[in-house]
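Before relying on records like the one below, remember that each one covers exactly one chain. Contacts with other chains, cofactors or solvent are not represented anywhere in the record.
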Amino acid sequence: MAIDIKVAQFPESVTEGTLIEWHKQPGEPVRQDELLAEIETDKVVFEVNAPEDGVLGDLLVQQGDTVSSEQVIARMQAGDVPQPDTESSGTPAKTKTPSQTGSTAEEEPKIAPAAKKLIAEHELDASLIKGTGKGRRILKEDVQAYLEQTDKPSAAETTQQSRPASSSPSTSDTTEGERPQKRVPMSRLRARVAERLVEVQQTAAILTTFNEIDMQPVMDLRARYKDKFEKQHGVKLGFMSFFVKACLEALQRFPEINASIDGEEIVYHGFYDIGIAVGSPRGLVVPILRDADALSMAEIEKQIADYGERAQSGKLSLDEITGGTFSVTNGGIFGSLLSTPILNPPQSAILGMHKIEKRPAVVEDEIVIRPMMYVALSYDHRLVDGREAVQFLVTIKECVEDPARMLLDV
């Protein structure tokens, strides 16, 4: 029986995707729920799995093609699949010995076709590249990230540099003289992020206000209870949960910062879905802490740790990175001392955390050395006035510098 293989139904916020890889080819046997293809959207990577056992037939869409929701991309013939340990004749397949297969066969990384092409073009050692795909498969984005980290001319580029100007150009990276350059296409996620950031810069009246926070009280509290906290809850006590709790307190006091503009109307949200910006091999993603006001600090830390791990492997679901009423980003983990974060539309504000640095500070009329952090609040001035923005950030400062305020609700 012939079966159509379709793209999953996209949510309303996603209109199309790109088929980035076929994991099976026509004529190959497939098992029910076995991975057939991967489709990248501007938010997540969808997997297309086999609906039943059978044999894969015609591929109607090729790698790199754009696909839409519920589009038929291939066909398969349903039926029994031969056992993997038998040959077509029905006799048991010969088991290869380690000497036949090679002792390092299992250690060889799996490489996506697009990634394999980049590796060949740049003459890279695949064993040095960390794969973030399913089963540690090396994806195109992993190769691009590796190239950005090394920031060195590849062997192919070096060879190209040594050629005379009259030599025929390489089919990969273009070089002229001693000034190499390379071109790689934007991922769909990167392109969509760029589009949204430019859009919000053009449509919102963005301002940023700053303050600084003495982190000593939180650091003392964390040092006192971190071991017991980790033992009891199975997760480390970080700074982010303190800032999320402080944001919740401030958002309740200043509801317009938890609101958004929809056309000619202001939408005041009666819930608190906090987005936490996380870096991934595919770019920046912002998974959401749903109903964050109902979460304990341990639950906040667990969700953030889980989101961080799954962002690296591309396993975040679309629902987990869609929506949000307010966002927090921490550039301090990369060493940023001060920055102006950009809004995540249609949200009206975003909090930027930064690196903790010891600086001179005045405490009770004395100059002392304190661990200080600059914080920034970028906000949409169409909805949020400067007074509310400044008071919001002051509330964050007061809560973090005196964590007992959050427990006593004062």
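The first strand starts at residue 2 and ends at 6.
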